[in-house]
Amino acid sequence: xxxxxxxxxxxxxxxxxxxxxxxxxxxxxxxxxxxxxxxxxxxxxxxxxxxxxxxxxxxxxxxxxxxxxxxxxxxxxxxxxxxxxxxxxxxxxxxxxxxxxxxxxxxxxxxxxxxxxxxxxxxxxxxxxxxxxxxxxxxxxxxxxxxxxxxxxxxxxxxxxxxxxxxxxxxxxxxxxxxxxxxxxxxxxxxxxxxxxxxxxxxxxxxx
Length: 208
Ligand code: GRF
What we know:
Blueprint lengths: L5 E7 L4 H11 L5 E8 L5 H8 L4 E3 L7 H14 L4 E4 L8 H6 L4 E5 L11 H8 L3 E8 L9 E8 L6 H25 L2 E4 L2 E4 L6
Parallel strand pairs: 1-2, 1-4, 2-3, 4-5
Antiparallel strand pairs: 5-6, 6-7, 8-9
The structure holds 5-O-phosphono-beta-D-ribofuranosylamine.
């Protein structure tokens, strides 16, 4: 018997190219999942329009003028109503409070455009260039209560070239993001895994 596809929700604030990469992987049959809801904190996020064009359920839950707690309660209510099992952050430009993180323990995933723990937070590509690193990349990780600090699921690397601008580096990293996010979700959904301390380990737990 084929197991039911996992019920994913996507939270985004912008163009939504990672959301589209996840959607495309599902359509290709590479990810045993369905996207049950797309949520944005910004009404005019292009990613929301793309979700609607694809016929997905998509809602804006604006954060402006609303206390953080109340905004998050609305988001959690929408996720629960959609019966989401997993929450994929895909360019969601809001920090999650412990309340939201705790509502989906070890089931919230994020992608960040650097090799964490280097360069967390905003403008990771600019930070990488300014630091002079020769290699950068992207990280898919589980979300905990810290900033870009949860257990790492998948990382992919890219070279940093002398002539790079933040824009060219971001574009090179983004190509890898579109591979890494579906790969990380596929592994989380189809392989046994566990978290030991900071480490996310794939494979059956050792016996005894
Ligand atoms: C990506 O670079 C992602 O790593 C970061 O925000 C950006 C979102 O891009 N968290 P998109 O909206 O998925 O195109």
